[in-house]
Design brief:
Largest sheet: 8 strands, antiparallel
Number of helices: 12
Radius of gyration: 22 Å
Strand content: 15-25%
Structural class: alpha+beta
Number of strands: 14
Length: about 375
């Protein structure tokens, strides 16, 4: 048997102590946030009434963080020690489509990391509009639930319950332009008016924007820094939605990376932005705000890479919203920006909590002349 050196022994001891401390910390998190059901600890996660990243950011993101924290905790425990985890979405009265896409990504993370699916609670009491949207988004494919039961609950809905309609989300860890193209084509079939607004040039711009966003996720979102929460692969999620009257359509791309403000300082272009803002790139990244960094990227329409064969970055992502009524919202890290052709890039208020990735939302108004 090979003798372990003193240096290796100390390293192993530190690692064991570190993991034990982490285990105790997360076990305490479990106990403090759990309830006892049938004698077993159960983590109960309750979503806020307004599940939105624009109207109720802090509560929504904190709910998602609870979900992610239980993933970390569950990885430290064996299958028999893990408490049950239930997520209760029955209190949601207002569901923002963008927040629903992020929720789907987090439930997908849970399933992929732990190899099991979460159990939804109180389905019969959920808001029927919320339930319908999440069903159409295919969120229940990520949960431990009988889809036939969900359909039976949905059969009780009335037309007035549904104002926003979702298309099934798509996800991949590769740059697959065909998948995002099919998403755009499917929405155009659902809302023919979209083709009237997006002429051939505009349709190509939208296709390029969705593809570029997924490419950026694969190439940059997970590349430079370690993510706070575990991931299985460098994955992105894309989805689309439309109002039932056909007046507004939206496209979304989300990744669970470290965020644009964190990755840019690692690139040549990002260091140029920091110098422009008067920061010393040789020191720890002392940016004024995440929103300011995102704004500079959008305002300059900068690519995170200078290699032509690796995509054109934000110029293509922004180009899609130069169409009539187009708007791009970027949420990343703790900041956000709204971009329109008329107003350019406008910062959103800085948040206290990190989103846990980057979300891009393109909105097109089809009811404007």
């Amino acid at each position: 048997m090979k003798k372990v050196s003193r240096q290796d022994a100390l390293r192993i001891a530190r690692l064991v102590i570190s993991r034990h401390i982490q285990f105790l910390r997360h076990r305490e998190t479990f106990r403090s946030g759990s309830r006892k059901i049938n004698g077993r600890h159960t983590i109960y996660i309750e979503a806020p009434e307004v599940f939105s990243l624009t109207e109720n950011y802090e509560e929504t993101v904190n709910c998602l963080r609870k979900l992610k924290n239980t993933i970390v905790s569950s990885r430290l425990l064996n299958q028999r020690q893990r408490p049950y985890t239930h997520i209760d979405l029955s209190h949601i009265k207002t569901l923002e489509p963008a927040a629903a896409v992020v929720l789907a990504a987090e439930l997908d993370r849970w399933r992929r990391v732990l190899g099991v699916s979460l159990r939804p609670r109180n389905l019969a009491t959920w808001n029927k509009g919320v339930l319908t949207f999440l069903y159409d988004l295919r969120l229940f494919d990520l949960l431990e639930v009988d889809r036939r039961y969900v359909k039976s609950v949905l059969s009780l809905r009335v037309k007035s319950d549904v104002t926003e309609v979702a298309l099934p989300f798509v996800s991949d860890c590769r740059n697959d332009k065909e998948r995002t193209d099919r998403l755009a084509d499917e929405l155009a079939r659902k809302v023919p008016k979209l083709l009237e607004i997006l002429d051939e040039e505009g349709g190509m711009a939208l296709s390029a924007a969705l593809a570029e966003a997924s490419l950026n996720s694969v190439q940059h979102a997970y590349k430079y820094l370690q993510t706070e929460f575990p991931i299985v692969d460098d994955r992105w999620w894309a989805a689309a939605s439309y109002q039932d009257n056909g007046d507004t359509v939206k496209f979304f791309v989300y990744d669970q990376g470290v965020g644009i403000p964190a990755t840019l300082p690692k690139t040549t272009v990002g260091q140029g932005i920091l110098k422009f803002l008067g920061h010393n790139v040789d020191k720890v990244y002392p940016h004024s705000s995440d929103s300011e960094m995102i704004k500079q990227v959008l305002r300059g329409q900068i690519s995170a890479t200078e290699q032509k064969n690796r995509g054109k970055g934000f110029p293509q992502i922004v180009a899609a919203v130069t169409q009539q009524g187009g708007r791009l919202m970027v949420l990343s890290g703790k900041g956000g920006v709204i971009y329109t052709k008329a107003s350019g890039a406008e910062k959103l208020p800085e948040n206290d909590v990190h989103l846990g990735g980057t979300l891009l939302e393109w909105t097109f108004r089809l009811d404007q002349p």
